[in-house]
Specification:
Blueprint: H1 9-28, H2 34-38, H3 48-68, H4 81-86, H5 94-114, E1 121-123, E2 135-137, H6 138-164
Antiparallel strand pairs: 1-2
Helix pairs in contact: 1-5, 1-6, 3-5, 3-6
């Protein structure tokens, strides 16, 4: 982040919340092997590496939305979307997705700090889960990313405890 930027309380709070929930997710995958990070220890199809990959891609997509609207999101859906977005590709490692996540987080934090107007908004992409014609401000996007990250950090905590008994808190 730029060293000369003086952040408002709101921007500082957004960045701190993003960092806190990202840290919970990263802490959950600490000291895992790639094999452990690919395990699916519950009835769910979720695995820890895939959760980190999904959260990074989701954050990156929503940040592109905040910067340029729905057209900038590059949703790239298709029949293999679930595999590409939720699981490691052959040759991809947990370290790879953590590095990508760190780069995404850096960009997001910089945008939160420097975006001229948190009230700037864009029409949401057409999807059955969005109200037709709805618009989200950049602020709403960052709050959504915080919620997504927190939700998936909770999922990750359950998976990690199922793998080896370790948990994020407690």
């Amino acid at each position: 982040m730029t060293g000369t930027t003086t952040l408002t309380r709101e921007r500082t709070d957004l960045i701190e919340s993003l960092r806190r929930h990202r840290a919970f997710l990263r802490f959950t995958v600490r000291d895992l092997t790639d094999e452990q990070a690919r395990r699916r220890p519950t009835a769910s199809a979720l695995d820890l590496a895939g959760l980190v990959k999904h959260v990074a891609a989701t954050e990156a997509g929503w940040v592109r939305f905040a910067e340029g609207g729905a057209e900038a999101m590059n949703r790239n859906w298709g029949p293999d979307a679930a595999t590409r977005h939720w699981h490691l590709a052959p040759g991809e490692t947990l370290a790879d997705v953590l590095a990508e996540y760190e780069a995404v987080a850096e960009h997001t934090d910089e945008l939160v700090a420097t975006l001229p107007d948190l009230d700037a908004d864009h029409a949401l992409p057409e999807a059955p889960w969005f109200e037709p014609g709805a618009r989200w401000s950049a602020r709403r996007v960052f709050l959504h990313v915080i919620a997504e990250t927190a939700q998936h950090a909770g999922h990750a905590d359950i998976l990690r405890e199922s793998i080896d008994g370790q948990k994020t808190m407690g």
